[in-house]
Amino acid sequence: KICAVCTKRPRSTFSVSHAHNRSKRWLYPNVHRMRFIFIDDPKAKVHHASVCTKCLKRGKIRKVI
C-alpha cells in the first residue's frame, strides 16, 4: 500500500471521541494497482505498480489501458 510515484504510505493516527478519548488507528492512502507511463519519461516505458489517485489527478502519470 505504497504509491510508486510519491511514496505515500500508511500512517498511524488517533481516533478522537467526543470525550477526547484517543485510540490508535491506521490511515491508508487511496492506492490502486495499474499500468501507467510517467509523463517525464521520453521512452514512454509502461510500468505496473500501485499508484495513489492524487498522483493520477495531478497529471504526474498517464494511465495505460
Please give the structural blueprint:
Blueprint: E1 11-16, E2 22-27, E3 31-38, E4 47-52, H1 53-58, E5 61-63
Antiparallel strand pairs: 1-2, 3-4, 3-5
Give a quick set of tags describing it:
single chain, 65 residues, mainly beta, 5 strands, 9% helix
- Count of individual helical segments: 1
SSE succession: EEEEHE
Q: How far apart lie the N and C ends?
A: 21 Å
Helix content: under 10%
Overall outline:
rod-shaped
Strand portion: 35-45%
Q: What is the structural class? A: mainly beta
Detail the poorly predicted runs: none
How many E-type strands?
A: 5
Largest sheet: 3 strands, antiparallel
CA radius of gyration:
16 Å
**If you average the pLDDT, what whole number results?**
94
Reading side by side through the largest sheet, how are the strands ordered? 4-3-5
Description:
By secondary structure, the chain is mainly β. Helices cover 9% and strands 45% of the residues. The chain has one helix and five strands, in the order ββββαβ. It has one helix at residues 53-58, and strands at residues 11-16, 22-27, 31-38, 47-52, 61-63. The strands form two sheets. Strands 4-3-5 form a three-stranded antiparallel β-sheet. The chain has a two-stranded antiparallel sheet with strand order 1-2. Strand 3 (31-38) and strand 4 (47-52) form a beta hairpin. It is rod-shaped. The two termini are 21 Å apart.
